[in-house]
Amino acid sequence: MASSGYARFSLLPLVVLVAGCGPGLPKVYPVKGKVVYKGKGPARDLTRYSVQLQSLTDPKELPGGEIAEDGTFTLYTRVGGKVIPGVKEGTYRACIVQPAVEGGPPPKLVIPRRYISMETANLQYEIKPEPSEITVEIER
């Protein structure tokens, strides 16, 4: 019986490292969300587009995540060569990024052009030190 208690405690450091709290990794918080058209529901035609955030205090901080078929997304932060799930606490502006296409032009834009630029999208979100869910509401 004593060995099972030891096994539980010995896994704790592994869980902490996997959660992104290990040495050298920033403190991030889970952020999920959905992209919706104002008054019309999920933006299903934005599958493979991405939501991109930019920190107002550190413009090099650019968490983002790909939009799924149901309009949902999970945000990730790049730290050095690693991509970790979550976003640092702070205020961010956001935009929608078209999917990358190899060897050809980007697909036809299905949303107003203003949403693909941080400067014109007029989208802003506050990430708090807790799991967050955000809704990116855009017009057609």
What do you see in this structure?
With 140 residues, this protein is an alpha+beta fold. It has a single domain (27-138), classed as Immunoglobulins (Immunoglobulin-like, Sandwich). It contains two helices and ten strands. The strands form three sheets. Strands 1, 2, 5 and 10 form a four-stranded mixed β-sheet that branches. A four-stranded antiparallel β-sheet has the order 4-3-8-9. The protein has a two-stranded antiparallel sheet with strand order 6-7. The chain is globular and about 40 Å long. The model is unreliable at 1-21 (pLDDT under 50).
Mean pLDDT: 85
Tell me how many strands there are.
10
In the predicted model, the low-confidence regions spanning at least 5 consecutive residues are 1-21
Shape: globular
Say what the CATH topology is.
Immunoglobulin-like
Order of helices and strands: HEEEEEEEEHEE
> Rounded to an integer, what's the Rg over CA atoms?
18 Å
Distance between the termini: 61 Å
